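hey so i finally got around to running the thing on that chain from the lab meeting. sorry it took forever, my laptop kept dying and i had to restart like 3 times. anyway pasting the input first so we r on the same page abt which one it is
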Amino acid sequence: MPDNTGLKQDSGKFRKGVSGNPNGRPKGSKNKSTLAAEQFLEASLVGICQRIEDEALDGNMQAAKMILERFVPPRKDRPIQLDIPVIKTYQDILTASQLILSAVFKGEISPSEGESLSRAIESYSKALEACDIELRLQSLEDIVRAGELK
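ok and heres what got predicted. didnt touch it at all, straight out
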């Protein structure tokens, strides 16, 4: 006897709240149209790629762009050649910031690259500031301890 015996009403319809397929569609199953499209593409893929390649070689820039975007994606980051001095003081931070702005204005680096460099320098300046505060605090603590010893 089938599992769904008694689930249908006498009229041939399922009762409210009762599914004829309680497990639903199997995961990963595909529509017939999707399967047909995949079979067509699989059979035609080599020819399509060859046609795009031929078009690109004949000077079709859209085809060339399509190929380049797929096989040579644009780089997100690149090494930046910029002579920034070693940063030891706050004056060095100011000098480095001026060099970055100048390079952006001259077009030597992009604005986003300049922003990345500025953020790195800002992070470094915060670390430099924290070290400076720690040294000053240590100096003050040493002075207080020396006064207590007398």
